[in-house]
């Protein structure tokens, strides 16, 4: 209620008292109010509107000075000359299942993150990093998307929010203080674990991660964390072309969605997939996304949709709007289509082929292996539905995902608007043609979750006659009856030659070996590793100035693997790499600690599993290739080869990180010696014997 001058307030109270007295005649103090005739009451009610017109600020309600909404900005925002950011907790609620384990209890929480440009420079493509540390899972966020992919997002180690749709923060000067253009509020909903009470745990920090900005430590008070980030005066930006939209980013896999032609009801788009990772690879790639506004794919060139079901269009809004369209000819009507690359034999097809970089059967190799196979391109005609019936209404699909067979697992971010892609003019003239609009999707390789790899590694060594096989369920046990095997048990040690035998044929040998070595055998045996590709790392020798390893690749799948490659990360020991003898090998810059290897020309084909000589009696035989790798110890300090320096920290096959054993072969006093190391022992024994003999004479 508006505040009144004192004189009007007095009149207001007097009027209220008079009306109240007329309507409710009764004894007030010592004054006996007279009954008012009914006609006088009607006359008073008629006069009330006139009084309201004469005194518009009057109110018949009593003035209790109700609290007003405080729009005063926080002091941190007022004092900030740069980019102001805050994170405010909104409370939390306990979720099911309820547990007495405090650290395992799940809670839902809400929070509001705010970013405001209070400086004189526009912030393009703003990125706000929130350092969560309570195993948070971000379920939704309005006004932004996560750089880690689609929601829900695992934010245990923090996540970066990117503006969507407001990707840039303009200045207050150029917008006349329009708060909607200079700021963004992010309403966050998620789940966290642990903590007591109802107070929502705060993140460790918040900061702006755009290049050239620096942020001090954030301050917290009363459930709010805030920070003011400013331009780093020492930062020297690289010469960059000024862009209208967000600058293009770099990832392991970059996807560009270009609009090439635009019409009222449809447009032509081109999708370009670039593999820019030295260890990235895809075989038989499948690309999926989600249409958000009822679009459908009318035709395609350079790729095809896995399913073609016209009934999905007929029963949708598209079927009502395009009543005369023959949907039997439509390429795909799904909200979430699955796109596949064309086989090589369709490359010159006049209808669906004849596009550069298309038709490689879904193979994407690293650039240093074959630049012509590191990129894929396809085009699609997209039909729109109302209300998007105009030439400038473009909405790229969301929720992009891409995967392959025995390949790394990629996590894709949202499509971000970037400056239009430039193309050489199709006429052959030295002119440049631009796309109408362009968006970029960045996908990065993720570390496989436990028991979710696609390849695994076994360890063996010259000084121990037992091999450590791949981890139990290294590649998952979803298709295994875990009632008959233990999915969490440590795998049984094996004689090295048993690694050549399929898992189903190892049980008897494993039991015999355990009995011979006096090792316990559990009643419920470990489950298999279930990996299509396994790699044996055998420490072959360890001598004064070097050491060697034998690497063996096994293909347990039915399909052959063409153009395969592997990579080994040995940390500091990798700097001693000397040679790999049966494969092509090289170091990966810039650290040179990763060794990249592939088959020699004509030997890059790893066949699949085949039947034994006598299928009724002999086990199946996996496809196999092996090579010896030699290393030098010079200038590498003290290396403990058996203690771990001689074993890889990471192993990759076709870009996929393989599961490693959790321990190394033990080196006991009764160990076997390699031939090279055994020779000095023989010489020493002979010398001692001769000396003793001479003394005896």
Mean pLDDT: 85
**Helix proportion of residues, in percent?**
10-25%
Name the quaternary structure: single chain
Give the helix tally: 10
Approximate strand percentage = 25-35%
Task: Find the count of extended strands (DSSP E, 2+ residues).
Answer: 40
pLDDT < 50 runs, ≥5 residues: 1-39, 56-67, 669-697
Please state the CA-atom Rg, rounded to the nearest Å: 36 Å
Structural class: alpha+beta
Sketch the major β-sheet: 8 strands, antiparallel
User: End-to-end distance, in Å?
Assistant: 123 Å
Q: What characteristic shape results from the CA principal axes?
A: globular
GO cellular component, one term: plasma membrane
Subcellular location: Cell membrane
Protein name: COBRA-like protein 11
Keywords: Cell membrane, Glycoprotein, GPI-anchor, Lipoprotein, Membrane, Signal
Describe this structure in words.
By secondary structure, the protein is α+β, with helices and mostly antiparallel strands. The chain is 13% helix and 32% strand. It has ten helices and 40 strands. Strands 3, 4, 6, 8, 10, 12, 13 and 14 form an eight-stranded antiparallel β-sheet that branches. Strands 15, 16, 18, 21, 23, 24 and 27 form a seven-stranded antiparallel β-sheet that branches. Strands 29-28-30-31-38-34 form a six-stranded mixed β-sheet. A hairpin with a 2-residue loop joins strand 30 (533-543) and strand 31. The longest helix has 22 residues, at 675-696. The radius of gyration is 36 Å and the shape is globular. Mean pLDDT is 85; it is low at 1-39, 56-67 and 669-697.
